[in-house]
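Morning. Coffee machine broken again, so started the prediction first thing and wrote up yesterday's gels while waiting. Chain of 768 residues, entered below exactly as on the submission form.
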Amino acid sequence: RVVALILVLCVSGMRAETARYPVPEEAERGSFVANIAKVLGLTGEELLARQARVVPEGEKQYLQLNRHTGDLVVREQMDREGLCGQNEPCLVRFQVLLESPLQSFRAEVRLTDINDHAPVFLNKEIVLKISESTVPGTRFLLESAHDPDVGNNSLQHYSISSNEYFHVYTRRRNDGGRYAELVLDRALDRERQAEVAFIITAVDGGTPPRSGTALIRVVVLDINDNSPVFTRSLYKVSIMENSSQDTIVVVVSASDLDSGTNGEIVYSIVQNSEENFETFKINPKTGQIRLKKVLDYEETKRYEIDVQALDGGGLSTHCKVEVQVKDVNDNAPEVIITSLTSTLSEAAPPDTVVALFNVRDRDSGDNGRTTCELMGEQPFRITLLAADAYALVTSETLDREQVEEYNVTVRARDEGSPALSASKTLLVRLLDVNDNAPTFTQAIYTMVMTENEPAGRSLGRLSATDPDAGENARVRYSLVPPATGTLAAASFVSVDSESGIVRSLRPLDYEKVRALEVTVRAADGGSPPLSAQAVLHITVRDENDNAPVLLHPAPESSAAAELVPRWAPSGYLVAKVVAVDADAGQNAWLSYELAKATEPGLFRVGLHSGEVRTARAVTERDAARQRLIVLVRDRGRPPRSATATLAVALVDDFSDAFHQLGHDPASGQQPQVADEEMLTTYLIASLVCVSSLFLLSVLVLTANTLCKARVPSELPPPSPSCYADGDFASDGVGVGSTGTLSPAYRYEMCLTSGSGRSEFQFLRPILP
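Came back before lunch.
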C-alpha cells in the first residue's frame, strides 16, 4: 500500500522532494498510510525528541503521526468527491516538520476513488419527438447521466431495453465524459405506432458495477422533411469569471427551410449536467445564452453546453458551445495557521519556531503567485520551508521587561493587477524568566531613631522594585549578617520581609550607641533568586535624659571652701564651677546662675563660663563667711539641673583663713576634736619650720656681713617668690577639650618676704 518515498531533508529554508502515498477514499480511521520513521531513516525516539508532527496544507487535519512508532495513519475519513469533485488526481497535501534542527519535507496522499456512487439521470423520463419520415441511421442526442466517481468507477456505457426501432451508441466527449446517442434502426410509422417507450441504463465500471435508469418516450410526429441547421456546429467563447448575472455568453443561430410551424425554431439546452442547468439559460426564440449565476474560475474552468434547435414539425438539430472561463484576481491570498505557540519564553534563542503557516491563493498564474512579509519592526522573521509553506521564527533575543507581548501581523500579497493581500495577526505572549535582580530606590537609607524609644516602633520603609513578573518580581527583605567582631545591628532593628518596614527591637541609649549601619538585602522569588544590597544608616536622636554632673566643686563634698581677701575689687575671680552633661546638642548646653547667696549683691556667676566673681568691691561690713548655691541647668525639654554649694571666707590674713575655714556659721556645726588636734600639729610643724628658717637667715646674714665691706643700711625691697607653674599642677582640675567645659584655669599664690604678718595674697588667675 505504501509507495516508496525518496525524501531529502534539508536545513530550514531548503525545499524537499514531494512524496505521494495512495489511500482509498473513505478509508477507516486508523488505517495505515506509511511509516515516516523508516522513510526518514529515524527511530521513534528521534521522532519524539525532535517533536515530529504533521502539518496539513488546509485547515482540516485528516492524518495523524504516531511519534513512538513513526506510523502515519488516517485520522478522519476522506471523501474524494467532496474534496476534489471531478478533478484527478485528488491530492491531500501535508508537511512533516522536525525541530532541533528545523527540517521539513512535503508529502501528499492521493485519494484513490472507490465506486461509491451510481450514475443518475437528471430527468427520470426523457421525451423525444421524432418524425415518421426520419431515415434509419439518424442519431439523436440523449440526456447524459451524472456519476461523481472518476476513472473506471465513472460512467462507462449506456444500454437500452430491447425494442425494434432503436439502439444506443456511447460516445466520449473531449473532457472524458460519456454521452449517449440514440440511433434509429428502422423507419417509424406513426399510423402503426405513435409512441415507442423503452428503458435506458447508464452503467459505470466499478466492481461491482453500479447503474442508473430513465424512461425514454419517443413520440412519432407527422412528416417534416427539413430539419433546422445551426450556422456552426461548435461555438467557442471565453468569458471573465467576474461577469455579472444575466450576462450574454453567446448567441446560437439555426435556420429551417420549412415554412409555417415547421420552420419555427425553438432553442433549448440539453441538460447533460446539473452544473450546466444551474449556470446557463437560453432564450428559446432568440438563442441567447445567458448566465444564471456568477462564474467562479476556481470551481469550474470550462463548460461544455449542448444546444438543441427544434422546429415546429418536431425536427431538431444540435450544436456544442464551449465556454472557457478566464481567471480574474478576485481571490485574496489566505494565511492558514497550522501551528502556533502563543506563549514563548523570553529566554528563547534566535530561530525559535513560533508558528507554522501556509499561504494559499485560489487564483492561477500571476494572480495565484504570492509573497509573504511581516508588518512593522519586530524581533521575528519569516523562513520559507517549502512552496507556500512558511515558519515564523525569532530573529533576536527577547526581553519581556521591554515588551510583554507582540501582535505579529503576517501579510500575504499576490502578483495580480491590482494586487490583493490578506493579513493574519498572531498574539505572542512572553513568559517571564528571572533575569533581573531587585533594585533599591536608594543606595543608602537614613533613618532616625529617638533615644529610649520603645521597641516595635516603625523607623521607615525600604523599597526595592523588580521588573520581572509573578514570583520572579516578589521582593523579600532581610538583614545581611555582619562580619564577626562588629556591632550586631540585628539585635537593635528588624526588617519586615514582605513590606520592608524597619522596626526597633529595643530602646537605645544615645550615650552608648549614637549610630548604626547595617546592610539590607532584597531578594526576589525566582529560581535561582537574584538579590541586591543597600546600606541602612540609623542615627540615634538624643533625648535630655542626663542631668548636668559637677566636676568642681566635687559633688560628694558638702561645700567647697574659697578664700577672698577683704581688699578684693569688683570682678575678682572667686571660683569656677565646672560641670558636664552626657547629652548632646542643646541638651548639653549648660548655663550657670546664682540660685542663693548670703549676700546676693556681692557675687555674680558667668552665664556660660560658670565663673564666680565679686559683683562689687568687698567691704568691712560684709559677713566674713558667705554661702553660695550655684544652679547649673541644661537647655533640654524639659531642662535638667544640678546645684553646687560654695563656702566663701572673707579673710584679712593667713591666720584668719584657718580660723574662718574651721568655723562655718552657716553650717551650725563646731569643728570636731580630731580636726582641731590635726590643726595644732600643723601649727607646731609650721612654727618649727619658721624658726629653722629664721635661724638659717640669721646665719646667712652674719656671714654676708663678714664677707662684705659694707652692710646695707636697709633691706632690699620685697621680692615676691611665686611658685612655678608645675608646683600646683597636680592639685588643679584638668578639663579636656571635649564636652562642654571651658579651658582649664590655674591660680598663682605668692608670699611676700617682707610681710610683717604671714598672710596669703590672692592674685589674678593666670590664663593659659
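The chain is about 10% helix and 40% strand. Going to sketch it on the whiteboard this afternoon.
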